[in-house]
Here is the input.
Amino acid sequence: MANYKKILLATDLSEFSGLVGGKALTIATTFNAELSLLHVVDFLPMLDSSYSEILPMEIGINEQMLEIVKGRLEELAKGLHIPKERQLLELGTPKSEIVRVAKENGFEMIIVGTHGRRGLGILLGSTAASVIHHASCDVLTIRLRDE
Here is the structure.
């Protein structure tokens, strides 16, 4: 049995984040592991240079959105007793950033939630599937069920 010391919880900050976080905390406690929290903000839309007069407003909106996301991440982290230095906020494509962050920081396990539904759920579940296929460490998916 593996002895995990560094576990990364990758969250989409959805309504299921607390459920997945609670399970991740239980697993980290069981292994006496350090639990870190990661949220990846998908690339923000950039305007065409022909709209340069609008760009300052676009940047302001993006900065506001990042501040809101950061607040939600901090709120989830507080409930999971994860200190500031282990709260990670990245910008990029979630499926690649989760794998990159895990590898660069020596995480031994990644925990992500997945719906595994049909239709739109397949697209949403593609992040978990990609992480499973590309991560160099173990990946645990927490199956989410809509009640």
Summary: The radius of gyration is 16 Å. Residues 6-143 form a domain with the Rossmann fold fold (CATH 3.40.50.620). The chain has one domain: 6-143.
